[in-house]
């Protein structure tokens, strides 16, 4: 009659195993020590029971160990169970000191062939470790598996960079098993920036496979490749990290409580972008990168470097590029970001003229569009509006009509601001660079303080130098003017026509100014009651 089971082992409070002490103690040195210690303390044999909490793999892991022990130290080891068996063997002390060719030795022998495993098997083993991640990491298993994946990734990067775009496209979805002949081969062809750009626009075959792994595993993988944080110069790995982070924002809940798990990956990706710079990433591409990595709390230094890169090419940006969300700062768009980028641009291009002046004016037109876009935001403060409007030098704008339109939109959207605040808002206007139509509209605008309207009109009067001559001699006809310049008759006729047009324009300007002058007298008399009291009298029109 077989002897009854004399040992109870409770695993994680989920399952109780009834075992023979002699069988288990033969292989498990850890359990043997516990049982011997209890016997020395006088425990009765029938009372022998052990509770093990947080066992690797839970009841499933201990069941595999029991099968090994009851099968005379034999069990089929596969890629699917080797990691779990290895962790259980270490945990229970199933070493050679207890018994020759014990479970730990068998799993270590199996793991020696890890560098010959297929990609799919290696990935499957790595995912299996998620249930007992702490043990796999502490026992060095993760390091071994991740080092194998890192070799796959690095060799794939080399092939992707050295191969032609068509060849890479055809193999982008294939596994390394179908390209084993190419895995360790390197081409002597030169890698050009154009080839790098085409590479970055494609995904390597392993992108989607690794995208399912948790961030702590990806971080270890990046460290194993030697391209971690500021050391990242790997273009393909950078692309993968951006792909991974983008998917994380779309498929996982990323918030302030867990974005620290991704922070190192975002920083590594950003350093990779900075290392290749604008030669590889377009202005729009850089803004795309900024939108992704900003969600994971970038460090100040690396963010500054990325913004320098973007600021240097901001003249290539579009309005959509600048519209970066600023919900976490209480406004619809990130105003501070745009101000910083423009300041970087001005610092980098402010000393040169010519081509840089053209870039400056291009940015000026872009910022005017941006001002009109952000003006309706109810949470936009006047100081922020002025910060955007005044971050460019006066030379960036040939005309201030765009700024005036943005001011008008702001005033319509913020009707309760005081006259002092309205006057302060208008300080960013250069009245001499307003067109006559804009000045006329400004003077009639009931939302504009009267003093500002007066300044605009006065600046328009100063732009017509021949007003006195024209008003004193209104009957002088252009045909009565004679020019003696020694040129040919054709040249004289052409200049005569131009002079006629200029005089006509000045005459119409004077008439319009006279009408506007009368309108403003009535306009000011109505608004003066709304204007705060002043110690000095209001200026008059000349």
From TrEMBL:
SUPFAM superfamilies in the cross-refs: POZ domain
Protein's pathway: Protein modification; protein ubiquitination
One Pfam short name: NPH3
Superkingdom of source: Eukaryota
Record's compositionally biased regions (Polar residues): 177-186
Low complexity biased stretches: 167-176
UniProt region (Disordered), positions on chain: 167-186
GO biological process assignments: protein ubiquitination
Domain NPH3: from-to ranges: 204-463
Entry keyword set: Ubl conjugation pathway
Alphabetized InterPro entries for the sequence: NPH3/RPT2-like (IPR043454), NPH3_dom (IPR027356), SKP1/BTB/POZ_sf (IPR011333)
Family to which this protein belongs: Belongs to the NPH3 family.
PANTHER family on file: OS12G0117600 PROTEIN
UniProt name for this protein: BTB/POZ domain-containing protein At1g50280
This protein's encoding gene: LOC106777100
């Amino acid at each position: 009659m077989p002897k009854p089971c004399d040992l109870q082992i409770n695993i994680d409070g989920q399952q109780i195993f009834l075992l023979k002490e002699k069988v288990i103690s033969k292989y498990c040195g850890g359990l043997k020590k516990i049982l011997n210690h209890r016997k020395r303390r006088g425990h009765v044999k029938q009372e022998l029971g052990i509770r093990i909490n947080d066992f690797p793999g839970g009841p499933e892991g201990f069941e595999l160990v029991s099968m090994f022990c009851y099968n005379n130290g034999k069990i089929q080891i596969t890629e699917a169970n080797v990691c779990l068996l290895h962790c259980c063997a270490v945990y229970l002390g199933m070493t050679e000191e207890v018994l020759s060719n014990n479970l730990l030795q068998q799993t270590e022998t199996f793991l020696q062939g890890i560098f010959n495993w297929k990609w799919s098997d290696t990935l499957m083993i790595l995912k299996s470790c998620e249930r007992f991640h702490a043990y796999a990491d502490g026992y060095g298993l993760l390091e071994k598996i991740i080092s194998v994946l890192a070799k796959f990734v690095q060799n794939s990067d080399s092939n992707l960079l050295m191969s032609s775009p068509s060849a890479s496209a055809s193999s982008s979805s294939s596994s390394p098993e179908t390209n084993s002949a190419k895995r360790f081969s390197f081409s002597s062809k030169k890698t050009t920036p154009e080839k790098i750009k085409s590479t970055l626009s494609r995904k390597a075959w392993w992108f989607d496979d690794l995208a399912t792994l948790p961030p702590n595993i990806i971080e270890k993988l990046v460290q194993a490749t030697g391209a971690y944080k500021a050391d990242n110069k790997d273009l393909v790995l950078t692309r993968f990290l951006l792909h991974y982070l983008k998917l994380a924002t779309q498929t996982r809940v990323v918030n302030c409580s867990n974005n620290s798990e991704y922070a190192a990956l975002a920083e590594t990706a950003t350093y990779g972008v900075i290392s290749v710079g604008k030669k590889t990433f377009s202005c729009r591409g850089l803004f795309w990168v900024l939108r992704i990595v900003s969600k994971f709390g970038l460090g100040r230094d690396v963010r500054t470097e990325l913004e320098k890169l973007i600021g240097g090419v901001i003249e290539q940006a579009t309005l959509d590029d600048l519209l970066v969300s600023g919900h976490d700062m209480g406004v619809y768009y990130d105003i501070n970001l745009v101000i910083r980028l423009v300041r970087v641009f001005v610092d980098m291009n402010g000393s040169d003229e010519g081509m840089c002046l053209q870039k400056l004016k291009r940015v000026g037109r872009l910022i005017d569009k941006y001002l009109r876009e952000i003006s309706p935001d109810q949470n936009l403060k006047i100081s922020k509006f002025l910060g955007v409007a005044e971050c460019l030098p006066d030379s960036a704008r040939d005309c201030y009509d765009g700024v005036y339109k943005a001011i008008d939109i702001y005033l319509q959207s913020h009707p309760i601001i005081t006259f002092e605040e309205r006057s302060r808002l208008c300080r960013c206007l250069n009245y001499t660079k307003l067109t006559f139509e804009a000045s006329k509209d400004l003077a009639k605008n009931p939302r504009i303080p009267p003093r500002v309207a007066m300044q605009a009109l006065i600046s328009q009067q100063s732009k017509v130098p021949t007003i006195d001559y024209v008003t004193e001699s209104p009957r002088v006809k252009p045909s009565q003017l004679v020019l003696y310049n020694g040129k040919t008759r054709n040249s004289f006729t052409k200049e005569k026509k131009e002079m006629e047009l200029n005089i006509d324009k000045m005459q119409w300007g004077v008439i319009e100014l006279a009408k506007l002058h009368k309108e403003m007298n009535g306009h000011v008399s109505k608004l003066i009651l709304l204007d705060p009291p002043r110690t000095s009298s209001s200026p008059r029109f000349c």
